[in-house]
Amino acid sequence: MYQLFSAENSIFSGKVRAYLRFKHDQGDLGPGYEDILVTPELIEGLLVGRSGSPALPQLETHDGVWLQDSSEIIDHCERVHSRVAVVPDAATRPRQRLAAYLIELLAAFTDFVYQSDAAIHYSIASVCALFYPAASALFLYCLPAFRTAAEEAATGTWDI
Ligand SMILES: N[C@@H](CCC(=O)N[C@@H](CS)C(=O)NCC(=O)O)C(=O)O
User: 56: Cβ below 6 Å to ligand 1?
Assistant: First the structure.
């Protein structure tokens, strides 16, 4: 069974929790998963020793692989459980795959703004001043890929 080490108020934990729940509901997560809410003792006594980092989420696989980073965790599970894929296939859907990763990147930027430590250490104004121009530029840069993916989805012409 996969063991997810998470916190309720951790947005990146929420990302992985939603992913694991979806894969499990689809019957494509092999041995299933257990969601373990961490304590400071668990972080210091176990997680830091295994991954070298206190950051959440962290995942231990049933065969002993230890992962920290929400994208690493999802990519690993997608490699092992590929029947119901959440990331489009590289060989047949390369542009949709790129769009999916760009949307994930944009979501990570958005998450950053809402991180409480960002709000505490930087004023909201300075975070917004940095975030919105960067996010807008990235969005505009990615727009053609999003548009192509949307058009192909609408017309059913998935061939690349
Ligand atoms: N890139 C990482 C970011 C993880 C992250 O920033 N987690 C936050 C909670 S949402 C955290 O643990 N911050 C405290 C720390 O890094 O010590 C991921 O996607 O997993």
Answer: yes
Reference 37, options 4, 70, 83; nearest CA is: 4
Low-confidence ranges of the chain (pLDDT < 50): 160
Whether residues 68 and 101 share a domain: the answer is: no
Whether residue 105 is contained in a domain is answered as yes
- Asked whether residue 73 falls in the same domain as residue 122, the answer is no
Residue ID of nearest Cα to ligand 1 atom 6: 55
**127 ligand 1 Cβ < 6 A:** no
- Residues with Cβ within 8 Å of 40's Cβ and at least 6 positions away in sequence, in order, are none
For residue 67, the CA-to-ligand 1 centroid distance in Å is 13
- Taking only the tens place, the pLDDT of each residue in 124-145 is 566 666 666 676 777 777 777 7
Which residue, chain included where needed, has tokens 């020793």?
49
What is the number of domains present in the chain? Answer: 2
